[in-house]
Design a protein that fits this description.
alpha/beta, Rossmann fold, 6-stranded mixed β-sheet, 4-stranded antiparallel β-sheet, 28% strand, globular
Length: 221
Amino acid sequence: MIKLRDITKYYSNKFVKTFVLRQINLEINEGEFITIMGPSGAGKSTLLYILGMLDTASEGEYYFLDQPAHKLKEKERTALHHQNIGFIFQQYHLIDEMTVYENLETPLLYKKVKASERKGLVAEMLDKFNIVAKKDLFPNQLSGGQQQLTAVARALIIRPKLLLADEPTGNLNSEQGKKIMELLKKLNEEEGMTILQVTHSEEKAKYGNRIIHLKDGWIED
């Protein structure tokens, strides 16, 4: 599903290059549940953003579903992302001017899902994540945990082929966090959803079937 060849990411400041990722070679098969671990500043979130096509590598090749994402125009990459990838951000990235209902509906609009079907899918997610009563509220009217649940629901509503999750349970209490992790495990095992999560938690890492360790931008063997 995913092939990375010598993916390198750096930022240039005059004559100095600051490396975030270095020569990342990685293959991810459809249906895997992978955990990315490493200390702060290891490049975990940057790798996730490149995989999600929200950032581009400085060097290297990225193949997604046999398409050379590194060669695609921005518009083509965006379309590939909207059709196939769900992203749970550490900082939620909910749209402040939209209600919970509208935030959930937005990915379906990108996929051109019919209005009647959109209504049903949003209702299903509101119910599944126990946020029906919050559907007309704006993100700033929600607690951190409620924003996190909304962000998870939004990422899953399109039933993505690939789910990228950056500390998906970071702002949830332990019971909510366990429920979300069990839901992700179920989606992986029963529906074959490919999942990559970034976490610092050894406990959450166990939900995956492979762990990749990053340190100083390198994959550790």
